[in-house]
Amino acid sequence: ILGKLSNKPCIIFYEDRNFMGRHYECMSDCADMHSYMSRCHSCRVESGCFMVYDRPNYMGNQYFFRRGEYGDYMSMMGWRDSIRSCRMIPMYRGSYRMRIYERENFGGQMYEMMDDCDSIMDRYRMSDCMSCHVMDGHWLMYEHPHYRGRMMYMRPGEYRSFREMGYGGMRFMSMRRIMDSWY
Fold it and tell me: What UniProt keywords are attached to this protein's entry (predicted)?
């Protein structure tokens, strides 16, 4: 397989469970997988890390995949629909820095993070995080403490309102750096 031989990020999507049926090999972002296959029920990550989404254009529920085999990811994640788009997460080596805010538009209490946080409530006594600014690195934010529940991929940039991004009913309670050792 090309991705494995060249050591470039590579994810292979299969129409059916357990790597059966037609497949599509992807080495970069793909905003709409429907043009390549009508359904996707398993995948194999040969190298790199990817976020997959259950809607086109990097929308909807997200799930993080790193090198490995996912023969029946729908049961594993509890999804009812298949993967519709994916985003390659670039390898990053450097410092990590993110500011989290209690309210939208960088309002309320602010805390700067440089490492993983398994509970913002325990560490900062912060019951909600509604905006953030990622200065360095790539991060995963989780709905529940201890890196559980639904997640959202955060790359460097300003995120003024999670509600306006479609995460209005969701609270982010833990954050983890995407480390180069995961690749």
Answer: Eye lens protein, Repeat
